[in-house]
Amino acid sequence: MTTLVHSRAEFVGARDGRTAPVGLVPTMGALHAGHVALIEQARAVCESVLVTIFVNPLQFGPAEDLAVYPRTLADDVAICERAGADIVWAPAVADVYPGGAPQVRVDPGPLGTDLEGAVRPTHFTGVLTVVAKLINLTRPALAFFGEKDY
Questions:
Q1: In what order do the strands lie in the sheet with 22-27?
Q2: What is the pLDDT of residues 15-33, one digit of tens each?
């Protein structure tokens, strides 16, 4: 059975007592077969599997429409359950970035202006910052990323 939690406190309560190692599959939702493969891989090597669903505002530039990014939480939770996730954490922005936009961000350096970074200059800083935040908040033994994420 998959437990859906929203707040940071709910997440801590759901994670307490889970058997280690914990595998993290960070997502922005709108899950598809690639995400399922990551969850199944995490399930194969970890005792507990955590999926985060967080539409990260730092990944969107000023001319990009964060408001229309697909949000399909009920469908995503059902997919996570079928794939074997133990916990789905769908935090609010305030749970990931308490106090508003973070003062400290992860800078991708010169690689941040290559490929997609050439047309979306803040994108990779946003991705790296949220991944660092989620890993620090969840403390997984392993994290699982899709091919487009590395």
A1: 3-5, 87-89, 48-53, 22-27, 142-143
A2: 988 888 999 999 999 999 9
